[in-house]
Write a structure and sequence with these properties.
single chain, 264 residues, alpha/beta, Rossmann fold, seven-stranded mixed sheet, 16% strand, globular
Length: 264
Amino acid sequence: MQNVKKVLVLTAHADDCEFFAGGFVASLAAAGAEVTEVICTDNGRGSFELPTTELVSASRDREAREAAAVMGKKEVVFLGYPDGFLDELPKNELRRIFMEHIRRVKPDIVLSFDLSAPFEPHPDHRHVAAAATEAVAFANLPLYHPEQIKDGLEPHLVPYRYWFAKNDAMVNRVEDVSASIDTKIKALCAHRSQMRAMMTDIKMAISATGKHQQFLPFLDEDNYAPAVDFMIKAWAASVGAKAGFEYGEAFRYEEAGDLFGKAE
């Protein structure tokens, strides 16, 4: 990955990149890669306490940009579609938009949700996964959206594809994020509205199931950083241990030319 110059992250929500690939993306940025992220939704439903208009402004205009600065991202693009309703877009519209960004950025790596991940409950994640997978597959073919080529966006083949692994059965690559785990956590904590909502959501689950009640005092919406630090490091440690790393992030990894077998 030392030769990676440009990275494109295709996500549904403002905190997706940090949650699923924040350590790896921060490592790439620190090594000099230019990172562009496309966030599809307006993040307008991820709160138990803020109305949509206030939440959209907070998550898009302040929190996502602050997190991007922490991570070292070059650019963040907000498409602004309604949170939770990406699957109502006309078929292939999001694929077209993703192809446009692939042809504009010309990334060495694309990261996004995994189309093959089982039991994904969020329609936005599923829709982004399908559109991203197809966009990566077709962005190098000139007869797909030739109008983009007329606008100067030449076809581009993405060499390396990292799909967020939400299920162990799909993992075939673990990246070492030991040196960037604190950057990941700091960037996550910049998403204040989302971290507050996560604390409330976890407390609701504990109350509903009666399990892990000893953690309730730890889940403080007004002081969420210790809980975020603990949970993310515990998760990353369990992933990293499988590959001999202190902390890791898991992916289903593909690269162009896999049909010839893995290069030595």
